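Document type: protein sequence-to-structure record

Subject area: structural biology

Format: plain text, a pair of labelled lines:
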Amino acid sequence: MAEIKLLRREPVAEGTLAFYFEKPAGFSHEAGQNAMFTLVDPREEDAAGPSRAFTIASAPHERELMIATRMRDSAFKRFLGTAHPGTKLEMEGPLGVMVLHEDASRPAVFLAGGIGITPFLAMVRDAARRQLPHQIVLFYSNRRPQDAAFLAELERLQGPKFRLVTTMTDASEWEGEKRRISRELLAAHVPDVRAPLYYFAGPPGMTMAVQGMLKELGVSEDDMRSEEFYGY
């Protein structure tokens, strides 16, 4: 368990904030991993207690640790949303296995719904920094552009190794993809759907649906990595 200090927070999408923390001395993680964050002496608690797991959305090379979350009306998020810079939390980690595979001959397909973008933001930043040879396609689904955290940065990061497919399922003025993440959407952008390893993150219903869809396409469970995001 390490003590961390809140440095600042900033909006990254409608109803979504990023929180930046001082990185503890000696701390290192792999892009895509998460950590357990615990409030110290909170003013109030709810039934879930003072601890929550969050993906570390910053890449390993960055000087600060960053998490991003939709702000809901829970005791934990009320505390975090009003905490002053310098507020101390405790962090345990890194945890999780949502990290990019080593065999660069196999492409990676990332499937993100909403704030499930956080592990993929870290992974794409890391791949760009280290100039990794993996071919990566990221499907990023939101209802509207204003809901899509880090969209402008992800668009800028596109290049020979990284391609972004953005879909807005409820945006009348959006001229790009509007289909939900589906067999048809994958087939339109992935030439051989059985070739890549698939990584997906989002609410439990979304991750279960994606897993079922990939199974129907003949993708082996060994070629799937997933993480569920709960609405706390």
